[in-house]
Amino acid sequence: MGSFLTTVGLLLFILVGAASATLSPTGVNYEVVALMAIKNELKDPYDALENWDINSVDPCSWRMITCSSDGYVSALGLPSQSVSGMLSPAIQNLTKLESVLLQNNAISGHIPAEIGKLEMLQTLDLSNNGFTGEIPSSIGNLKNLNYLRLNNNSLTGPCPDSLSKIEGLTLVDLSFNNLSGSLPKISTRTFKIIGNPLICGTSSSTNCSVVSPEPLSFPPDALRDQSNTGGKSHHAAVAIGASFGAALLTICVIGLGIWWCYGRKRQIFFDVNEPYDPEICLGHLKRYSFKELRSATGHFSSKNILGRGGFGIVYKGCFNDGTLVAVKRLKDYNVTAGEIQFQTEVETISLAVHRNLLRLCGFCSTENERLLVYPYMPNGSVASRLKDHMHGRPVLDWSRRRSIALGTARGLLYLHEQCDPKIIHRDVKAANILLDEDFEAVVGDFGLAKLLDHRESHVTTAVRGTIGHIAPEYLCTGQSSEKTDVFGYGILLLELITGQKAIDFGRASNQKGVMLDWVKKLHTEGKLNQLVDKDLKNNYDRVELGEMVQVALLCTQFNPLHRPKMSDVLRMLEDDGLAEKWDASQRSETPRSRSSEPQRYSDYIEESSLVVEAMELSGPR
Q1: Is residue 112 domain-shared with residue 130, that is, in the same domain?
Q2: Which residues participate in catalysis according to the annotation?
């Protein structure tokens, strides 16, 4: 009997221990303590870490933190938050970390050697900071590491030999530091070392302009800063590796050509007929089997459809562990581009991490299917909630609408000015701005236009977007840029103000033409009160209304050169420089400049030869 009780007690201890693995005997969460130590070493001028609280027992609700299904912190993401200070060695206590994204900040000091204890780490991005000292050799202990970006810092000393022990690397970027010494043989698709004068100086024979081995997965845009000039490599291993890689690639291409000629239409990397291996990942993304996603969505049941759009149908999915996801089944993927191109673009999208961007969790690729897996957004899209009410009041009151405007601006700013390579959304509208459990704006569907259309933007004729949101230059010529997104953002502001979708505008008896023309007319007549959503019942800030309308009109100027950048848009919304920008725009609109272009947005729509295709691609995502 005694031994039985002992066994039961032991089992109970194990169960309790598993349920509270991060708790100390006094009930303190080790991960909370570690995160607070990290916060205390950083200077946070814009309160990005405001809700990190030492008295909390669960950090999973904190900003910039992502947790796994078992409650451990799996990702620490603070990109482009203007934080400085130092990175605390306490990061070693976040033992389940898979991703650390601290790029584009002003963090200084040494990279803590303790970071090498994070055995599950897959992505480490400390680029564009002020780190000094040597790269710790302990990084070689990160056996699961896929992406290592330490570029654009002030690191010194040699590139540690221990990096050669990591077998699964996809990208290593050590460019633009002050490294010295010889280079170890690192097994990776892409290795960047340019911009280290002690390795790549004129007296050195190392050819740093060559990426070795030849990259197979990253887009040409990401490599434009590197020339293809010649030069003899002083490192025999690099030369042999590059030659071997090129020869192997040639053999693979010939083999695949023969395979294709005999009609065996299999994929380059993934085959639906091969046994499913959940450990096969693309970077830090999970690869799902088609069977798994089909089961989660109830065989893609129409009852689980969350939205339809030009890129495909989005289904609500639920895995066996209860995790809810949104599964986008692409209907228009570019078959001719092949599997490598698809994975390249998916990798690029997945590396854009920001609290106002929809995070890509995983993907599925078969011979006939391409699917993307995202977190489920419980509050749907802005478009779906604009007319919703709760207890007689609109769900999206004025305060929430303004917050959505700011959050969306921050997300687009990251895509345009802080993401490398930059991403143009090409379909900014209320239906593509999702809302999390706290009604925080999350920009969705970014990068999908590029994913599904690989032609250069300056020759593109497939206008992807929605009538009422498409910028004039894109509508007429197919040429897109970040200023195309700025125009769409301006229309989004008008949707938030009016409570109407731009594509549905004009159905009311007092409305004629398109939304932008109507707003311009009422603004000129000083009748802004007629713009505001009647459901708000005058519960809005008049000053903020005037400012938002002015920002919207600046964003929707017909000449893209006159539109502000998203960084300027965000500053203006935060009450910095709007008056000056507005006055300047009014001075530049002379009668001569107005006479040289159509006066109404509807004129561009009527003249466009690309409208039919654009309308076919419209609709909620």
Answers
A1: yes
A2: 427
